[in-house]
Design brief:
The structure holds 2 protein chains of 2 kinds. Chain A has one domain (1-80, 103-220): Jelly Rolls (Sandwich), CATH 2.60.120.10. Chain A has helices spanning 9-17, 22-33, 36-54, 65-73, 104-107, 210-215, and strands at 115-118, 121-125, 135-141, 150-152, 156-162, 165-167, 170-172, 177-180, 189-190, 196-202, 206-208. The two termini of chain A are 34 Å apart. In chain A, helix 1 crosses helix 3. Helices cover 27% and strands 22% of the residues of chain A. Among the domains of chain B are: 69-171, Orthogonal Bundle (Rna Polymerase Sigma Factor, Chain: A), CATH 1.10.1740.10; 183-250, Arc Repressor Mutant, subunit A (Orthogonal Bundle), CATH 1.10.10.10. At the A-B interface, helix 1, helix 3 and helix 4 of A face helix 1, helix 3, helix 4, helix 5 and helix 6 of B.
Chain lengths: 220, 250
Amino acid sequence: MSVSSHPSDETLLRHAAGTLPAGPKLVVDLHAAGCPRCREMIRDLEAVGGTLLEGMAEVPLASDAFARVMARADLPELRKPIVPPPALPVPRGLVLPGGIALPSQLAARRIGALRPVAPGVRMGKVHVPEDPGTRVLLFHIGPGRSIPEHTHDGLEYTHILCGSFSDQTGRYGPGDLVEADAQIAHTPRVDETGDCVCIAAFEGRLRFSGLLGVALRPFF
Amino acid sequence: METRPGSAKFDGPDGTGHPLVAGLRIECMHAVEPRLLLAPRAPPPAPRTDGRAIGCPAMSAPNPGTAGPAGADMSALIRAIAERGDRDAFARLFRHFAPRLKAFLMRGGLPANAAEELAQETMLAVWRKASYFDPARAAASTWIFTIARNLSIDLKRRERHGQTSRAEMLEEGVDEASGETILMGAERDARVRAALARLSEDQATIVRLSFFQDKPHSQIAQELGIPLGTAKSRVRLALARLRTLLEDLK
């Protein structure tokens, strides 16, 4: 199944402008890594940023600004070596089908053990140290099972790593990013054909309904 | 003073005695009305059917007009820094971009002193990372924009959480472009500018506000005097129009 569901243009614009919070940015990056169409649009929108920069009316800097920058340019740079972060072990409780690996952007992040939160559904918290306020969750959902019912104030971004699910708006497969706003009451149900592993980021407050809300309190 | 790569940076006990440093003035000419931010510097684009003309190589790049040296020249300056540690080139680049960066960052909501700091940080990063610049990937202004954007994301995170980000470090090593057709940076730049120029004035305002504002809908509603719900759909329409124009101009 080829990628058929993409982030909205507004989300791509926020990504390019640097105003998308860290959690949604991670999920969009995961999608874009496998989606040339979105990578291309992000580059175009970054060029919009360049054009805006080029067109700004100048605001003068302090008179010694250039001297200060040059003075620092002459200092040997205290450079943090760029080492690719080591891949961490696959989180406990996550079983990926053969041939599928966690993408590097995820493998380098600490992910809490996946714990059962509903019949056939396990969930782990993805740590986003650069923005501790952000909520990113990894779901492992069995065939025919549903993502627990929840509400959120802002947008929800779900990227499918493997498997597929359907909701009122359509059927989604690996590589798809599904953006749902608070108005959409959706209960995605995983197709009978196999497990689904997906990652979801939320803007605004997230609440699970009923008893599950109580059970999940340790996550938040 | 002769400047050579590498050694040039450490020629003296300090670098502050360089004549350029003493002689630099920040010039503020050609103030542009905010309303005109999206106005094209290039001559009006060719009609859609003649789209290929827009994709000409960098040498036939847009006339610099009043906005300073052309993009291709700016790229050459960055290359000169990367290849020779050329301070003259850096001074020219600084004169052009630093005051625009400060304005840009203030427009994005930073107070003047923070914008000043970050504009300086960005230019320092331009000096240090010049060898990473790839004109085939991005125009000079776009590359410098992305540096400023990443630094300002880091700044916001530090302010909010006292955390440093590893995002930028990770991004530097990543090159996902292999095997993909990459438009020449200058070509992309020209195409994007042409697309922006074809938006209506309201749509250009919407794109600009969406770029600068964290929560643009209410700002757009206020600026255009329309209800909030309408603002949301107007953003969607403006960006859909921009996407269509970008695709048509390919």
